[in-house]
Automatic annotation (TrEMBL):
<keyword id="KW-0645">Protease</keyword>
<keyword id="KW-0378">Hydrolase</keyword>
<feature type="domain" description="Peptidase M28">
    <location>
        <begin position="167"/>
        <end position="414"/>
    </location>
</feature>
<keyword id="KW-0732">Signal</keyword>
<dbReference type="GO" id="GO:0008270">
    <property type="term" value="F:zinc ion binding"/>
</dbReference>
<dbReference type="InterPro" id="IPR040234">
    <property type="entry name" value="QC/QCL"/>
</dbReference>
<comment type="similarity">
    <text>Belongs to the peptidase M28 family.</text>
</comment>
<keyword id="KW-0862">Zinc</keyword>
<dbReference type="GO" id="GO:0006508">
    <property type="term" value="P:proteolysis"/>
</dbReference>
<feature type="signal peptide">
    <location>
        <begin position="1"/>
        <end position="35"/>
    </location>
</feature>
<protein>
    <recommendedName>
        <fullName>Peptide hydrolase</fullName>
        <ecNumber>3.4.-.-</ecNumber>
    </recommendedName>
</protein>
<keyword id="KW-0808">Transferase</keyword>
<dbReference type="GO" id="GO:0008233">
    <property type="term" value="F:peptidase activity"/>
</dbReference>
<keyword id="KW-0479">Metal-binding</keyword>
<dbReference type="Pfam" id="PF04389">
    <property type="entry name" value="Peptidase_M28"/>
</dbReference>
<dbReference type="InterPro" id="IPR037457">
    <property type="entry name" value="M28_QC"/>
</dbReference>
<dbReference type="InterPro" id="IPR007484">
    <property type="entry name" value="Peptidase_M28"/>
</dbReference>
Length: 443
């Protein structure tokens, strides 16, 4: 584990102090302007009870646990529990699993591919392909030529059309690749289960987002005749989106170094850092994002989840408020008896962490390239690492299924409250509304 821990050394440089100040101020601004509305008990119950069991086998419905997370038959999890080394057929199968899920169950989400190649210490002169999949749900009034998903760029990375509006997005991420060695390594906590959790989160919040945004659009249509000079409306001006990243190439091929790790996230950040936009930003109180990275309101990274009794630390002082919201989500769900696990302590026990206890240390993971560019980060990873980490025991049979299901509920509630969907969470009897699902590129 020592190779994955970063501790600041020596006095901070003026540049690092400036970076810290800018980051803290930017996150303070985000905290003050993002809509974060707590859900009622009724809405919470509907939200975490909305998982569709229809795609799972009848035999699993007798279980006390969410059948989608059954390691052998679960519709979300079991297809990911195979070796997923970048550039291999196993990796491609899991990519297709993500695509099939969103296209069939969540057709309003768009997909962007971000591909790169790199040599590795294990493959010599052979280039390995790394593929990141980014699924987005933006407000529908941005769906036709105004969301960054559909933007075009010139040779220098400049966006080639004027007048676009951009949307801030809550960003959830997990890596889907598995270790190159030992051969046959599965990586259930690392990170098949986090990927399945994010799929469940997307499904749990999707209908509420649809109903919220349909309400905003309906209000706009009703008001447009009398308010032609402000047709967009304040609600639209401040509305954000959500995106889910499945990142490739997190694992080292030989041993963890700056260059033998984080292949996918490093390539993604390098590309997005060069995407410079020229249009106005959504949000009257902001100068607006200048790059794709600036559009990330918060980067939430899930890793090593699925073992019992996890302890998640709050690593970053400037996003401790977000950690507190996540901890509050867990507490509310436990109070309502909606979680199945029985841990010795809360998953997120540091809600009251004192400011002086933040030392600046953190675990090296896919958030690092984003963190280095000033993106606010919430890292959801247990310390100490689970005992099965990087062993052949990290497989489906060693997962704690109640814990996996509980993480899906906790993160779903966090996202739903961030996206301000109180009053729009449908009951299970209400069917989802389908729309057009678009894939930016073909496999």
């Amino acid at each position: 584990m020592s190779s994955r821990w970063c501790t600041p050394r020596g006095p901070p440089s003026p540049k690092s102090l400036l970076f810290t100040l800018v980051t803290i101020l930017s996150v303070f601004f985000i905290h003050q302007t993002e809509g974060y509305t707590t859900l009622s008990d009724k809405s919470i119950t509907h939200l975490v009870s909305s998982s569709s069991y229809s795609s799972s086998s009848e035999d699993t419905k007798t279980s006390n646990h969410d059948p989608d997370f059954d390691p052998h038959t679960g519709a979300l999890l079991s297809p990911i529990l195979i070796p997923r080394v970048p550039g291999t057929p196993g990796s491609e199968k899991v990519q297709r699993h993500f695509i099939d899920f969103f296209s069939s169950e969540l057709p309003n989400w768009t997909l962007e591919w971000q591909n790169s190649t790199s040599k590795t210490p294990a493959t010599g002169d052979t280039d390995v392909t790394f593929s990141n999949l980014i699924f987005r749900r933006d407000p529908p009034w941005l769906s036709r030529g105004t969301s960054t998903t559909n933007q075009k760029y010139d040779a220098d990375g400049e966006e080639d059309k004027e007048g676009k509006k951009f949307v801030k997005r809550l960003t959830l991420a997990a890596h889907y690749d598995s270790l190159y060695r030992p051969e046959g390594f599965i990586g259930a906590i690392d990170s098949a289960a986090p990927c399945a959790i994010l799929m469940a989160v997307a499904r749990n919040v999707d209908r509420a987002l649809s109903q919220r945004w349909e309400g905003i659009m309906k209000k706009r249509e009703e008001d447009v005749d009398g308010l032609e000079d402000d047709a967009d409306g304040d609600d639209e001006e401040e509305e954000g989106g959500v995106q889910i990243m499945f990142l490739d190439g997190e694992e080292a091929w030989v041993s963890w170094t700056d260059m033998d790790s984080l292949y996918g996230s490093r390539a993604l950040v390098a590309e997005w850092e060069g995407r410079k936009f020229t249009g106005d930003a959504v949000g009257k109180r902001s100068a607006g994002p200048k790059t794709e990275l600036d559009a990330i309101s918060l980067f939430v990274l899930l890793d090593l989840l699925g073992a019992p009794d996890p302890k998640i630390n709050s690593f970053f002082k400037n996003t401790h408020w977000a950690y507190q919201h996540l901890a509050a989500a867990e507490a509310k769900l436990r109070k309502l008896d909606l979680l199945e696990s029985t841990p010795q302590q809360p998953f997120l026990p540091e809600g009251k962490k004192a400011p002086q206890r933040f030392t600046g240390g953190y675990v090296l993971d896919d958030h690092v390239p984003f963190l280095q560019r000033g993106v606010p980060v919430l890292h959801v990873i247990p310390l100490p690492f689970p005992d099965v980490w990087h062993t052949m025991d990290d497989d489906g049979d060693h997962l704690d299924v109640p814990t996996v299901g509980d993480w899906a509920k906790i993160v779903s509630l966090f996202v739903a409250e961030w996206m301000d969907v109180e009053g729009f969470v449908p009951g299970k009897e209400e069917g989802a509304k389908n729309g057009g699902w678009r894939e930016k590129e073909e496999l």
